[in-house]
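Here is my example:
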Amino acid sequence: MRPCITEPMNEEGVTRLMEYIIITGVLLLLMIVMMFSVNASIMEGPANKLRYHAFVDIGNGVSTRIVDLYVIAPGNGTIETKFDIPDDVAGKGYFVDVDVEKKGASQTIQVQSGSIKSTIAIAGIGATRGVVGNTTGAGWNMIQYDSKGV
C-alpha cells in the first residue's frame, strides 16, 4: 500500500473571483449614486439659471411692446397688436402675468415656471395707464388698447 500524500487545497482562484465581484459591486453602487446626483447638480442648476435669464429677456420684450403700443395709441379708438414669444424655455412652458405689484402701485410683468420667477417693471406707463392680463408662451399673443378703458 502506497502512502497517500495530500496537498493543501489551493483557493487562490476563488479569492481572486470574490475580489473582482466585490470591486464590481462597489463600482456599480457608486455609478448608481452618481446617476441620481449628476442630474440635480450638473443639469438642473444651469438649466434653471438659463430659464431665469430667458424670463428676464421675455419680460423686457413684453414691457417694450406694451410701451410701444402706448406711444402710438390713439386718443379715441382702439388698437391691437400680435406678437410672438418663445413657446418654451429649456424644454418647459411658462406663464406671463401683467398686474399691479402687490407691495406698491407700480405695474409689473411676472414671468414664471415652477419656482423660477422674474419680475420686470413696465417702463414709464404704470402710473398713467393700467395694464392687466396674462398669457403663455404657446401660440401668438395679443395686446389690445381701448381708449374707453374696456
Remarks:
- The chain has a mean pLDDT of 83.
